[in-house]
Design brief:
The complex is a heterodimer of chains A (283) and B (373). Chain A is built from 14 helices and no strands. The C terminus of chain A is likely disordered. Chain A has one domain: MetI-like (MetI-like fold), CATH 1.10.3720.10. Helix content of chain A is 71%, strand content 0%. In chain B, a hairpin with a 4-residue loop joins β15 and β16. In chain B, α3 crosses α4. Classes of the chains: A mainly alpha (283), B alpha+beta (373). The interface between A and B is medium-sized, with 17 and 23 residues.
């Protein structure tokens, strides 16, 4: 009996040890980006080939950030603001569309529902690169190019989000909706006052996914936005576009670009785990 | 308060996508005619899939009737939305809004569809909560409540709107046996007090017998019989009703008829004195409590004796037919023992073999003393 317990404890210790090791491997590049952002250019590559880079933070962070701010063609802080506005508005709008689409697919019966659903999923197979030219024509014909809307609208009904919400909403018992109908709710009140509030976890999880998706979007903003409207990924690419790559500035920009994603995740983390696992276990 | 009329109510589902379904449709409810009086407590009962819930949902407006008419009073409601029918419904799983407190759950309908002011709504909710004994729970959410409390909230939600009709779809089936019996009386008292027309669906015949002013028995989408509980029990319209109502179930024997003599394949026979059967065969039914076990006889082999404390259930076989008798605690044969059985002609049921329609039902009088308090 005793031996069995000891064996179990050992397994558990080994298991956690393994997980910790994997986490460290995954987190190392991020840690290094943060450390490098505090070092002068010369110190980042001080080790030379085959040696470990320097892993102790320095004191050059503010100097690097000032140098970054001094580059008008990058306009980093302006880009940060652009990215924030775009990502926040996009997340709100996409949550609305995805939840409405998911609700319709999960809880209503209509002709060609299955075909429509397959069609929506099918668009996931189209790579962004393929969409760039038709989307660009569409957006400029609508007079939206070089505007926030040009980046916000194309993925506002995000297929993966619709799929995610559909799966989550299937767990809502039909009787709950029927009870609300009997209580006098219209179909929109049903969605707004009964379905959305009971989907908080899933919505939070989807919000994280949508925010990250928009925050990291690179190719499309690069095509459709011009200087002054750049988002963070585009701005970071501009740091590298000169003859010489200022790694100290690149690292400081990357480190700062991580912060909003981090904040969003921390804020919604509890819901994120609930939402992803939601419906996995019958309660 | 509203009377309900079902006039040829039919509900069928399209089954074009399914194989092996004749006519490409499934008929859930077929040509049901029924009048439910104002203030009546009517119970729909039947096995699963018999169409009882579908009928209720048609009355609620959650399903569209594919044929026939539903009238509330004089008004045809077929095309009215649920919210416009002035009905309230209690669901099997209570269907409480998980993100709202008990107070909000109860007031939701009033806030959406009434012209009452907030203080008026609050006072209505408080009154109902007092009536249901849940005034301490008003600020809790459904996941903090026990099953019985959730049930009370669901009932409260339906009565707060003072609807013309209550619909209840197996509201007690998720509760444990003791609580179920408690809530059963509570719902009856509530219905008596409020005097609102109530349609109640259950698969539990005990619940149906205990609660209904009248019982409507459904099978395969067809209405079998509508009558007060005692009449359903004593004078079932057919074999199905006789078999469905009563616990333990009625005993059936396939008998051949020769003049006044009924004979079971195993050789067990019965002489009719006051009745006669025209067909060559019939189904004989006898309720477990009307069977008398006689020591020393040779009709039945006892298989199991269940001692319930206040009575015994004696299971056995007569030939290949399973038989159960409900007896005094003093009757306690051993498993394997051969015993005799007997019963009075007045307690016997006879049904046509082909159609199952009743030929003869119980004619024994309830003794005047037994019928009094």
């Amino acid at each position: 009996m005793h031996e069995k317990l000891e064996k179990e404890a050992l397994w558990q210790f080994g298991g956690y040890g393994f997980l910790v090791a994997v986490t460290m491997v995954m987190m190392f590049p991020i840690y290094w980006v943060v450390v490098a952002s505090t070092l002068p250019q010369s110190a980042i590559f001080a080790g030379g080939a085959g040696e470990l880079p320097r892993l102790i933070p320095g004191s050059n962070f503010l100097a690097n950030a000032e140098a970054l701010a001094a580059r008008p063609e990058v306009d980093f802080y302006r880009s940060m603001l652009n990215s924030l506005v775009i990502a926040v508005v996009y997340t709100g709008l996409a949550l609305l569309f995805c939840s409405m689409g998911g609700f319709a697919l999960a809880k209503y019966d209509f002709k060609y529902k299955r075909t429509l659903f397959m069609g929506i999923l099918g668009t996931l197979l189209l790579p962004t690169n393929l969409l760039v030219i038709p989307l660009f024509l569409l957006v400029s014909n609508m007079g939206l190019s070089n505007s926030y809307w040009a980046v916000i609208l194309p993925w506002a009904a995000y297929p993966l989000g619709i799929f995610f919400m559909k799966q989550a909403m299937q767990s809502i018992p039909d009787s709950l909706l029927e009870a609300a109908r009997m209580d006098g709710a219209s179909e929109f009140q049903l969605y707004y006052r009964v379905v959305l509030p009971s989907m908080k976890s899933s919505l939070a999880a989807l919000a994280v996914i949508l925010f990250l998706f928009q925050w990291n979007l690179f190719l499309w903003p690069l095509v459709v936005l011009r200087e002054g409207k750049y988002t963070i990924p585009v701005a970071i690419s501009k740091i590298m576009s000169n003859d010489m790559i200022a790694y100290d500035q690149l690292m400081v920009a990357s480190a700062m670009a991580i912060v909003p994603m981090f904040v969003v995740f921390i804020l919604l983390q509890r819901h994120f785990v609930n939402g992803i696992l939601g419906g996995a276990v019958k309660e | 308060m509203t009377a309900i009329t079902l006039d040829g109510l039919t509900k069928s589902y399209d089954a074009t996508d399914m194989d092996d379904i004749p006519d490409n449709e499934i008929v859930a409810v077929e040509d049901v005619d029924l009048e439910i009086e104002d203030g009546e407590f009517l119970v729909f009962v039947g096995p699963s899939g018999c169409g009882k819930s579908t009928t209720l949902r048609c009355i609620a407006g959650l399903e569209d009737a594919t044929g026939g008419e539903i009238r509330f009073g004089e008004t045809v409601v077929n095309d009215l939305r649920p919210r416009d029918r002035d009905v309230a419904m209690v669901f099997q799983n209570y269907a409480l809004y998980p993100h709202m407190t008990v107070r909000k759950n109860i007031s939701f309908g009033l806030r959406l569809s009434s012209t009452l002011t907030t203080p008026e709504i609050d006072s209505r909710v408080t009154d109902v909560a007092e009536m249901m004994g849940i005034e301490d729970l008003l600020s809790k959410t459904p996941d903090e409540l026990s099953g019985g409390q959730q049930q009370r909230v669901a009932l409260g939600r339906s009565i707060v709107r003072e609807p013309g009709i209550f619909l209840m779809d197996e509201p007690l089936s998720n509760l444990d046996a003791k609580l179920r019996a408690e809530m059963r009386t509570e719902i009856q008292e509530l219905q008596n007090d409020l005097d609102v027309t109530t349609v109640y669906v259950t698969h539990d015949q005990t619940e149906a017998m205990a609660m209904g002013d009248r019982i409507a028995v459904l099978n395969d989408g067809l209405l079998q019989q509508v009558a007060p509980p005692e009449e359903i029990y004593r004078s079932p319209a057919n074999e199905f009703v006789a078999g469905f109502i009563g616990s333990p179930s009625i005993n059936f024997f396939d008998v051949s008829v020769d003049g006044q003599t009924l004979t079971d394949p195993s050789g067990f026979s019965y002489e009719l004195e006051d009745h006669s059967v025209e067909d060559d065969t019939a189904r004989l039914g006898i309720r477990p409590e009307d069977l008398t076990i006689e020591e020393g006889g040779d009709d039945m082999t006892v298989t199991v004796v269940e001692k319930m404390g206040n009575e015994n259930f004696i299971y056995g076989t007569v030939g290949d037919t399973e038989v159960v008798a409900r007896t005094e605690v003093t009757v306690r044969p051993e498993p394997g023992q051969r015993v005799g059985i007997s019963f009075a002609e007045s307690a016997m049921y006879l049904f046509e073999s082909e159609t199952g329609a009743a030929i003869k039902t119980k004619t024994d009088e309830i003794e005047p003393q037994a019928a009094q308090f």
